[in-house]
Specification:
The protein contains 9 helices and 6 strands. It is of the alpha/beta class.
């Protein structure tokens, strides 16, 4: 941790594999954009599993993040307790997943963040965006656009309190629909 980080600062976070289809390589520039816009302090905690042969864009993003002030970068998978602790610390989850891969693909991190009442910043056009548009508690960014992602991060920091209130309300609804009973009902719906 940097000694310049204030415990009252919001925590912006990313968790999961560091891959281009998850938009990981857009994060460094987006953080810079957000820091130029917002007057509210924040720091970043990035848990990014680095695979054996990461793409060059991922390697470059990792280098940039390592050099950024107010940023903690975790390269390895976390054990269960570490994972839960990081999930708890992050206030705003950034999930800049690409439209090509996540138009209808699911995200465990997004599901957990929603269930915990966390604010989320997601790419427009993804299934996650549909959830945020319908329920609130987050903001949308143009897919594969660092500037738009940075603008959305800054807006989520500046508007954190009302977004968090709505995200907490959404967490209750999330659990009512996204559960085992609902899943089974969807599977058997329409079966004579």
């Amino acid at each position: 941790w940097s000694s310049d980080v204030c415990s009252s600062d919001l925590v912006i976070g990313y968790m999961g594999d560091a891959r281009t289809n998850k938009g990981f390589h857009y994060i460094p520039e987006a953080i810079e954009v957000a820091r130029e816009i917002t007057k509210t302090g924040f720091h970043c905690e990035i848990q990014a599993n680095i695979r054996n042969h990461p793409e060059w864009q991922v390697r470059q993003a990792v280098r940039l993040l390592q050099e950024m002030p107010y940023t903690s970068l975790y390269h390895e998978a976390l054990n269960s307790d570490e994972y839960k602790a990081l999930m708890k610390r992050i206030d705003i989850f950034v999930l800049p997943y690409t439209l090509e891969h996540y138009h209808s693909q699911t995200s465990g991190v997004f599901s957990e963040a929603r269930a915990l009442g966390k604010v989320t910043v997601v790419s427009r056009g993804t299934w996650m965006a549909r959830e945020v548009q319908e329920q609130g508690g987050g903001l949308l960014a143009i897919p594969e656009d660092s500037k738009s992602l940075g603008d959305a991060i800054a807006a989520s920091v500046e508007n954190y309190d009302p977004l968090r209130t709505r995200a907490l309300e959404c967490a209750t609804n999330w659990g009512k629909y996204h559960n085992c009973k609902s899943f089974i009902n969807e599977l058997i719906a329409g079966i004579p």
